[in-house]
Amino acid sequence: EVQLLESGGGLVQPGGSLRLSCAASGFTFNTYAMSWVRQAPGKGLEWVALIFGSGGTTYYADSVKGRFTISRDNSKNTLYLQMNSLRAEDTALYYCARRLPHDISDHNYYYALDVWGQGTTVTVSS
Amino acid sequence: DIQMIQSPSSLSASVGDRVTITCRASQSISSYLSWYQQKPGKAPKLLIYAASSLQSGVPSRFSGSGSGTDFTLSISSLQLEDFGTYYCQHSYTTPYSFGQGTKLEIK
């Protein structure tokens, strides 16, 4: 069964740091790009970051650029999100998600996010 | 950055109704558009990818259409289990972004 399991959330003071993990199972992890998506309490979904399967290419939302770092350890089938200089507005439920490829055997998937974890909660407060 | 605007923000409909949610992109995104359903306390679930392709396991009453800047998600005959919040998302270029969501309530 394809599965993603986040961990590492918690309560942190403003300016502090936290590292989230996302353990993947049931698929060939290093062949998929992965994303982090967050959801503030009572709010909508916000895309946060993307990393390619090799780990060599990353992209970020402007709201986290320079503060967050997405990375992966393909030997451990694990995705990470290092969050530094945390702010109150970073308080959210953080999901990891698998990104489908552009296409497979001429069928277009256009990078949809097809598998999601259950999320881990980050609260930034003094 | 590409902005995604959904309408309506909320709607209430009865079992058996046909429901349509629209999503507009601030610039052309071809067919790089997905739709997700989220129920309270749960992770989002992929319904439609590439604007009109039904994800495996999703009931055929769900359908998507559109390309360029204007897209729709339709539910042909609303069922009780279809309550929740629906989001569109583009994946044309980073930063990917989501619409603000449409909360669907069953009357």
Question: Please, could you describe this protein's structure?
Answer:
- The complex is a heterodimer of chains A (126) and B (107).
- By secondary structure, chain A is mostly beta strands.
- Helix content of chain A is 0%, strand content 52%.
- Chain A has strands at residues 3-7, 10-12, 18-25, 33-39, 45-51, 58-60, 68-73, 78-83, 92-99, 103-104, 107-108, 113-116, 120-124.
- In chain A, a hairpin with a 5-residue loop joins strand 4 (33-39) and strand 5 (45-51).
- The model of chain A has no long low-confidence stretch (mean pLDDT 97).
- In chain B, strands 2, 4, 5, 6, 9, 10 and 11 form a seven-stranded mixed β-sheet that branches.
- Classes of the chains: A mainly beta (126), B mainly beta (107).
- The interface between A and B is medium-sized, with 26 and 28 residues.
Helix share, percent of chain B = under 10%
Distance between the termini of chain A: 40 Å
Q: What is the number of strand segments of chain A?
A: 13
Main beta sheet of chain A: strand number and arrangement?
7 strands, mixed
Describe the sheet with the most strands of chain B: 7 strands, mixed
What does the average pLDDT of chain A come to? 97
What's the Cα radius of gyration of chain A? 14 Å
Q: Average pLDDT value of chain B?
A: 97
Structural class of chain B: mainly beta
- How helical, in percent, are the residues of chain A? under 10%
Oligomer: heterodimer
Output the structural class of chain A.
Answer: mainly beta
Reading the helices and strands of chain A in chain order gives: EEEEEEEEEEEEE
What radius of gyration of chain B results from the CA coordinates? 13 Å
